[in-house]
Amino acid sequence: MLLQISNVYKSFGGKEVLKNVEFAVDYGEIHGLVGKNGAGKSTLVNIISGVLSCDSGAVELDSQPIDQLSVLERQDLGIYVVPQHATIIPEFSVAENLFLGVWLRKKAGLVDWKPMFEKAEQELREYGLPIDPRMKAKDLSLVNQRKLNIVRALFSKAKLIILDEPTTALSADERNSLFEFVLKLKKQGTGIIFISHYLEEVLKLCDRITVIRDGLSFTGYAADSVDERSLTNLIVGEDVELCTRTREPGAEKEPILECRNIKGKDLKDVSFRLHRGEILGLIGFPGSGAREICRGLFGLYPVESGEIHLNGREIGIPKEPAEALKHHIVYVSYDRHKEGIVQQLPIQENISLSILGSKLKKLMGLVDKEREIDNSTGYFKQLNIKAGSIYELVGNLSGGNQQKVVISKALSVEPSVLIIDEPTIGIDVKSREEILFLIDELTRSGLSVLYLTNDYNELLRVADRLIFFSDGKVVREAENDGFTAEQVIQMRDSVKGGAA
Ligand SMILES: Nc1ncnc2c1ncn2[C@@H]1O[C@H](COP(=O)(O)OP(=O)(O)OP(=O)(O)O)[C@@H](O)[C@H]1O
């Protein structure tokens, strides 16, 4: 075995997270690590990489104990974590990123660019990522940024690579391309730990799967884990009901939001309507205008001209989120770390951030503390946030529970238009269904939703109508009439370039 973990126990201030975990990864094995939000997956990864030490138990690499080694010492032995959020430096070239910390230098200390680019080109080709090493990393697609992170680990002679939710926000095609890349690593003998909440891909890609539940581990061969449903039940410990929206046929079509000829950098001419109580699915490649209009409606993307009508009345184009919030238009960003949470603040203050200037405002700029606690406690319970109390720091929560805080913050505004961009990132199957049920329920009392996600299976379960974006315009509209994800991909691809 490459990695062997036995009897691991870890608690945080009396909260037992891992009680007795056994886990092993062989050379050339892809090992799936799954569990509910807060089950302890990241804690286990941190124990493997050396960020945390376990309270008791053993961690061995190549049959040698590594418990006492630091993160850097473990990296030298070949353990690398590729986090979900690419750790590349966007303004640096691909080569500079690849050799970060070990840039090739001339005698005078200056960077020796020519050999550095040549070596980078050679390494990238060798590891199956033939991209231009001179390119700025920010210009790479999301999937190539993730691959660059993996190549960086390989270049540093990684034996064990831990991929933390590597397919988040990737399209179906990009996911497949990443899978091929990972399978190549497996063939070369690299051990891989693959963490994901997308059980379909875990079952497809992994040789073995370990489920962490109630602090314990259960390992089995993927081929024996009958299907997604039985794996879901093992993770959650109970049957999960899937949310399927039951639209009322002939529901009243009262427009609530209308965008007319919206133009801006990547927005060439966007017009569409959103009806009261409707969930409208937005589909399009990056840069097609789908994400740009979502952000533009919340003052996070520059819109130069056009009209936005809300409830039949023209409102100005928001220049900043506060202006959109005044109209009860809220956006949940795909990037919770940059635009969703403040790690250093407790849950209750994070949830309140969107309503400090409205619902919670008291005379003389004071905050209505009682209302703040009521509001946060309500969402804490409703979204089943896993934490000791509303006073726990958000930075201490698991990723999925942080996302629930972001959604609570958005719902606190009592939005009339909720714009959600990859809302279920990092959320486990049970929580995802709870959130979908909640959104479905809120639309029955008038909430209207713009829903943007690459997960078309999820989108098709909840959207009433779909609009397709290409080249900064809406180029096709369709009622969601029992389409499959494959059909949606075909429709999306057929409109690329602007043809309806
Ligand atoms: N530094 C810390 N201090 C206190 N509690 C912590 C700390 N780190 C993690 N926890 C708690 O340990 C538990 C496990 O968290 P962990 O991040 O390992 O879960 P996870 O399985 O990775 O979840 P997710 O799927 O949501 O990312 C959570 O309840 C979390 O709040």
TrEMBL record:
GO molecular function: ATP binding; ATP hydrolysis activity
Keywords from the named record: ATP-binding, Cell membrane, Membrane, Nucleotide-binding, Repeat, Sugar transport, Translocase, Transport
Protein name in UniProt: Sugar ABC transporter ATP-binding protein
